[in-house]
Automatic annotation (TrEMBL):
<keyword id="KW-0520">NAD</keyword>
<dbReference type="GO" id="GO:0050661">
    <property type="term" value="F:NADP binding"/>
</dbReference>
<dbReference type="GO" id="GO:0051287">
    <property type="term" value="F:NAD binding"/>
</dbReference>
<feature type="active site">
    <location>
        <position position="172"/>
    </location>
</feature>
<dbReference type="Pfam" id="PF03446">
    <property type="entry name" value="NAD_binding_2"/>
</dbReference>
<dbReference type="GO" id="GO:0016054">
    <property type="term" value="P:organic acid catabolic process"/>
</dbReference>
<keyword id="KW-0732">Signal</keyword>
<dbReference type="InterPro" id="IPR015815">
    <property type="entry name" value="HIBADH-related"/>
</dbReference>
<dbReference type="InterPro" id="IPR006115">
    <property type="entry name" value="6PGDH_NADP-bd"/>
</dbReference>
<feature type="domain" description="6-phosphogluconate dehydrogenase NADP-binding">
    <location>
        <begin position="3"/>
        <end position="161"/>
    </location>
</feature>
<dbReference type="InterPro" id="IPR002204">
    <property type="entry name" value="3-OH-isobutyrate_DH-rel_CS"/>
</dbReference>
<dbReference type="InterPro" id="IPR029154">
    <property type="entry name" value="HIBADH-like_NADP-bd"/>
</dbReference>
<dbReference type="InterPro" id="IPR036291">
    <property type="entry name" value="NAD(P)-bd_dom_sf"/>
</dbReference>
<dbReference type="GO" id="GO:0016491">
    <property type="term" value="F:oxidoreductase activity"/>
</dbReference>
<protein>
    <submittedName>
        <fullName>NAD(P)-dependent oxidoreductase</fullName>
    </submittedName>
</protein>
<dbReference type="Pfam" id="PF14833">
    <property type="entry name" value="NAD_binding_11"/>
</dbReference>
<keyword id="KW-0560">Oxidoreductase</keyword>
Length: 288
């Protein structure tokens, strides 16, 4: 069992840290809103720290799941940030979805301090975090990954090293690109069924057994039909992620026409007041 710090206790980080404690690790948590850290410590075996630096002191592994590039850079490099408290040989594991550029920047800074750094964004949403069934895609050195993987296993269904620093973030971009087009296609399919006077549940029962079937269809068709969009990953965060994808595509020459279009569709959803709706809310703009 390891001494672990977990930084960031949102809808993903709170249960992920809980799985670490349940697995027997010695866990210290930190959150910008201290009340969340105290609430976590009241529910799980572990303690809350006043700063990221304090949480990281003495930890063998420091996990983070925060908001964006700037949040991550602050959590790592501020005077009261994690790097200031970490001991040489400790490993920072970043579960935030951020750019590959900031990942490589922070990985280099960590190396200068004698620290390991693994970028390890996750897929599976809030339900995956709560059930300990996340897909974790990692970048870093084989040695760092080999040490971190048994700890990450507390909340992972699959965990894999995809390549050097930044490769985990690039793989997460592939994930978000695939989801964007898929959810738009599903939204149009269900919308068409409605306009054609068909039963959505009956349509899905049939087509989900063939080539059109997907996790999104199986798990979101009913809530999409009912205009309920309080399930998991928010539109605001998806637009942040798609912005990262499109910027990376500009750098590597990839053509992402559908992703760019769906990003604008999500902007429409934001303009409808749906920034905190989950990503399946694309169907809402078709019903306007």
């Amino acid at each position: 069992m390891a001494r672990v710090a977990f930084l960031g206790l949102g809808v993903m980080g709170f249960p992920m840290a809980g799985h670490l404690a349940a697995a027997g690790h010695q866990v210290t948590v930190w959150n910008r809103t201290a009340a969340k850290a105290e609430a976590w410590a009241g529910k799980h075996t572990g303690r809350a720290a006043a700063t990221a630096r304090e949480a990281a002191e003495g930890a063998e592994f420091v996990m983070a799941c925060v908001g964006n590039d700037d949040d991550l850079r602050q959590v790592c490099t501020a005077p009261e940030g994690a790097f200031a408290g970490m001991q040489a040989g400790a490993i920072f594991v970043d579960h935030t979805t951020v750019s590959a550029a900031v990942t490589r920047e922070l990985s280099a800074l960590a190396g200068e301090r004698g620290l390991g750094f693994v970028d390890a964004p996750v897929s599976g949403g809030q339900a995956g975090a709560e059930n300990g069934q996340l897909s974790v895609m990692c970048g870093g050195t084989p040695e760092g990954y080999a040490r971190a993987e048994p700890v990450i296993a507390a909340y992972a269904r699959i965990c894999r090293l995809m390549g050097p620093s930044g490769a985990g973030q690039l793989t997460k971009m592939c994930n978000q690109i695939a989801i964007a087009g898929l959810v738009q296609g599903l939204s149009e399919s269900l919308h068409f069924a409605e306009k054609a006077g068909l039963s959505i549940s009956e349509v899905v029962e049939v087509i989900s057994q063939g080539a059109a079937g997907s996790w999104q269809m199986q798990n979101r068709h009913k809530t999409m039909e009912e205009n309920r969009f309080d399930f998991g990953f928010a539109v605001d965060w998806m637009r942040k992620d798609l912005g990262i994808c499109l910027a990376a595509a500009d750098e590597n020459g990839a053509s992402l026409p559908v992703t760019a279009l769906v990003d604008q569709f999500y902007k429409d959803v934001q303009n409808m007041g749906g920034g905190r709706w989950d990503t399946s809310s694309l169907i809402a703009r078709l019903r306007k």
